[in-house]
């Protein structure tokens, strides 16, 4: 499996930094994971967006899905779309209200919102807490602790396992998803403080403790907000899990 970082800025894009977006690849199958603000531009820098075989959105906050509107325009109106060589509908796995919420984001006004339907572009498939297959990958989804329906993922291929926390506070589901994985891609949006709201994000300290307790092979930190000191987050995580790393936009990691 290969992981490419399209964007890793948390909560909002930063200067020359896209919000959440990742590619997971095996056997030539391209699985998109998140498509936040600016991630589509970064996707086009590494591949043709029509080469995406499926897209997963862990939840529907804009920093994880805003560029779906732009992808819709590209797939719907590109003058040289590769059809009928490829299926027209892109499989899109997301919380069950994605068809409505993404249509609302795409529509320019109230009149068109009532008529907007993205089912000519996407094959919507609701995420649930279950195990399923996407191309060559076995995927386990589990609902995590966030203010809106949100899922963490455990993605397996060829005996290797990648876990992605999505956005979540500490919870039992994250412990299960991360258990013994080769690579944990963990959001770490802020430094640790008792004043942080519960059930929203992980701190660097909490991400490090999660990785340590789950005995993961490698910890990659992502989703650090532009206003947060990434060095401080890394120092917290490294105290619990020596060798933790902060991901970089454009970086590629083998799992």
Structure description:
InterPro entries: Metallo-B-lactamas (IPR001279), RibonucZ/Hydroxyglut_hydro (IPR036866). This is Beta-lactamase. It holds the Pfam family Lactamase_B_2. The protein is α/β, with parallel strands linked by helices and 255 residues long. It has one domain (2-254): Metallo-beta-lactamase, Chain A, CATH 3.60.15. The chain has helices at 39-46, 62-65, 68-77, 98-106, 110-113, 172-178, 204-214, 230-240, and strands spanning 2-7, 21-26, 29-35, 54-56, 90-94, 122-126, 131-134, 137-143, 151-157, 160-164, 183-187, 219-222, 245-246, 252-254. The strands form two sheets. It has a seven-stranded mixed beta sheet with strand order 6-5-4-3-2-1-14. Strands 7-8-9-10-11-12-13 form a seven-stranded mixed beta sheet, with helices on one face. α6 links the parallel β10 (160-164) and β11 (183-187). α3 (68-77) packs across α4 and α6 crosses α7 (204-214). The longest helix has 11 residues, at 204-214. The mean pLDDT is 97.
The strands making up the biggest β-sheet line up spatially as 6-5-4-3-2-1-14
CATH architecture: 4-Layer Sandwich
Question: Mind telling me the C-alpha Rg?
Answer: 17 Å
Q: Number of helical segments? A: 8
What structural category characterises the helix and strand content? Answer: alpha/beta
What gap, in angstroms, lies between the N and C termini? 5 Å
The major β-sheet equals: 7 strands, mixed
Write a short abstract of this structure.
The chain is α/β, with parallel strands linked by helices. Helices cover 25% and strands 27% of the residues.
């Amino acid at each position: 499996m290969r992981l490419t970082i399209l964007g890793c800025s948390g909560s909002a894009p930063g200067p020359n930094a896209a919000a959440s977006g990742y590619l997971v690849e095996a056997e030539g199958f391209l699985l998109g994971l998140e498509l936040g603000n600016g991630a589509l531009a970064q996707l086009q820098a590494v591949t043709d967006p029509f080469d995406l075989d499926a897209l997963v959105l862990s939840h529907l906050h804009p920093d994880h899905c805003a560029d779906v509107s732009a992808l819709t325009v590209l797939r719907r109106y590109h003058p040289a779309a590769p059809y009928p060589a490829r299926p027209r509908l892109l499989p899109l796995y997301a919380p069950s209200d994605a068809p409505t919420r993404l249509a609302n984001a795409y529509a320019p006004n109230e009149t068109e919102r009532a008529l907007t339907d993205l089912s000519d572009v996407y094959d919507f498939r609701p995420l649930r807490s279950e195990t399923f297959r996407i191309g060559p990958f076995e995927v386990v989804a589990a609902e995590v602790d966030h203010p809106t329906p949100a899922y963490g993922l455990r993605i397996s291929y060829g005996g290797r396992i990648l876990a992605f926390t999505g956005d979540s506070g500490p919870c039992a589901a994250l412990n299960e998803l991360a258990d013994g994985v080769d690579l944990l891609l963990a959001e770490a949006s802020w430094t640790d403080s008792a004043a942080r709201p519960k059930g929203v994000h992980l701190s660097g300290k909490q991400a490090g403790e999660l990785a340590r307790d789950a005995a993961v092979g490698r910890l990659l930190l992502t989703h650090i907000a532009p206003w947060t000191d990434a060095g401080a987050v890394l120092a917290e995580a490294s105290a619990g899990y020596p060798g933790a790393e902060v991901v970089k936009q454009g970086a590629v990691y083998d799992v």
